[in-house]
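During the reporting period, our protein records have gained a structure token line. One record among many is quoted in full directly below:
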Amino acid sequence: MRILITGGTGLIGRALCQHWQRQGHDLFVWSRDPAQVPRLCSGAQGIAQLQALDGSGPLDAVVNLAGAPIADRPWTAARRDLLWRSRVDLTRTLVDWIGQQAAPPRVLLSGSAVGWYGDGGEQWLAEDSAPGNADFGSRLCVAWEQEAERARQWGVRVALLRTAPVLAPQGGMLARLLPPFRLGLGGRLGSGQQWMPWIHLDDQVVLIDHLLHNDACSGGPYNACAPEAVRNTDFTQTLARTLHRPAVLPAPAWALRLALGEMSVLLLGGQRLVPRRTQEAGFTWRHPTLAGALTQLLRIS
């Protein structure tokens, strides 16, 4: 298959390129630095402009994973603008380009995030739940998905991935948590009662592959999260136990709100999430439990 990937140099994109390179697919990565793509993305071809693919033959699929990191720094006006442009505006440009092709790709798999639901409190949430809309992160995800959905008008099958924090020691949330937790300086965030969806990197990659190859997977979002729902305090204790370290230094909610402003909702809010449509699509998790996932990732038994 001929597949175009945006965000291919990110954590998920690199793992996905490695997975698909082993399957023999022809991979193209749209990147600001295309010269780095072959090294970072298992030999994929980097392109600086979408027009570089015009006339090169039709694509079978587009996988849209682009987006500046949302949890790296507070949501100042400048940061919000960057987050919006790197997700909503980029997706609009991508979908407009798809519509200009004589033979559009058969499928668009487009990233989103569990932040779409906002802070759900104790409510069980599935793919048919209402959006949060109360914070910037939720509004960002809603607009992001709306741009991707426009590809349907050209007969493209669209599937949206509402991705939970992805667990991998080489990047993302877990990589940021490991240094303090290995020193015994970890702890819950705020009350620790907020729900915390998660997914192992391997399951994220295999889920994208599953959605790519199953034509019945269409018509909206799929929650990319493990079936085991845990609270922040459970996550904290499980990680500490896996590392054989204590976790006795909580971060007070007031301090997180003071330091991060509205972005603190990413840490103090949560989603009690059920991957209902993902399960109905026949997907099987390799790492359905947090303890098993962390043990495998950290190679500690």
The two ends are 39 Å apart (CA to CA). Residues 58-298 form a domain with the Rossmann fold fold (CATH 3.40.50.720).
